[in-house]
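Fold this sequence, please.
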Amino acid sequence: MPEFELADSNLVNDDLRLIRSQIRRYVNEVIVPQGDAWEAAGEIPRQVFRDLGALGFLGMRHPEAYGGGGLGALSSVILGEELSRSTYGGVASAITVHSDMSVSHIAHRGTHEQKERYLRPACLGEKVGVVCVTEAHAGSDVAGLKTRAVRTLEGWTVNGSKMFITNGVYGDTYIVAARTDEGKGSKGISLFIVEKGNPGLKIARKLEKHGWRSSDTAELYFDDMRLPPDALLGEEGKGFYYIMSTFQNERLVIGALSSGACAKAIELTVDYTRSRQAFGKPLWDQQVVRNKLAWAASQTAAMRALTYQCAQMIDEGQDVVREVSMLKSFAAETLQTVVHTCLQLHGGTGYMIGTPIERMVRDARILTIGGGATEVMLEEVAKRM
C-alpha cells in the first residue's frame, strides 16, 4: 500500500528525516504487528520503552548531559506523527506522555541530582514517566486542584487523589501537582517527584476507556504520602506556571498526533476505495469520494503547517499560547471530521471492531478533551484577539 505523504517543511533537516525513517521502521516492524495484543492487555510492554530509549527517541529534546539528544521541538512533532501513524493511539499516548509531558518537568526545573536520578533513566526507557495533575473535579481548571502537600520536619506529607492518569499503573516516576498554600490560589501549587513504591501512593483502580485501550490509565490517591525535602521540583508555589508552560508542549504534541493519524486514515481509505467495488466500479471512481478525501487531505496539510509553525516559534522562544491553543482546538476537531469521513467511506467494514479505522475513530475522541478541552482552548485564543 503506498503511503500518503505530505511534503515535509523546509524546517526538517536530514537528521530529522533520518529520525523519522527510523521511528517509522520501528512502528511498522514492532508496534503494528503487536498492537492488537497490547490493546487486549491494556498496556504496552516495558521493552517498548527500553527499545525507544536505546534508539534515542525518548529524550530527543532533553539535555545531552543527561542522556538526551538536545534537539528542538520538531523532534517531538516527528515522534508524535510517526507513532500515531501506527493507528494505535494508546501506544502513542503512553510514549509521548513519558517523553514530552512528564519528565520534561525534570529536564526544565530539576536539580542536577534530580536529573541524574530520574531524567537519565527516563531517556533510556528504564523508568516510565507519569504526570499527575487532573483530579475528579479539576481537569482543564488546574487552579481548582485539591490535593494538598503539608510541610513537615521530615519533608512533606501529601493527601489527595488524581484521575485519568496515563501510565499511572505501570509508571515509575510520578510528577505530582499539589497545593502547598491554601490562600494563594494558582500561586499556591507546587510540583513533587514521587517514586514508585512509596507506601502512601495508592492505585485505586485501573480505568477502562472508550479508546486508547493500549495505554494504562489509573485513578490514584495519596494517603499520608511522605516525601523528603528534595522531592520538591523547582520552586515552591511555581507549579501552576510550570504546568501551563508544559501544556504548550503537550498541545503541540496533540497537533502532531492528530496530523499523523489523519494522514494514516486518509492513506487507508484511499487504498480501500481503490480496491472496493460498488455498482460495477471502484469507489474511488466516484467524484464525491475523491472530493471528500481531497478535502480531508487539504485540512490535514493546513493542520500540519500550523503544527510546524508552532514548533518553530517554541524553538525561537516566542510566546505561543495563542497559536498553540489554535492548533490544539483545530487539530483535534479536524481529526474527528477526517476519521469519521474515512469510516463512512469504509462502509460497514469500518464499523467492525479490529479494523484500524474503527479503532482510530475511538482513539481520536479524547483529543478534543485531554490537554485542554476545545472550548477552553478557544477561550485562550479569544482572550488574545
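The mean pLDDT is 95. Strands lie at 129-132, 148-152, 155-166, 173-179, 189-195, 201-206, 217-227, 232-233, 277-278, 281-282.
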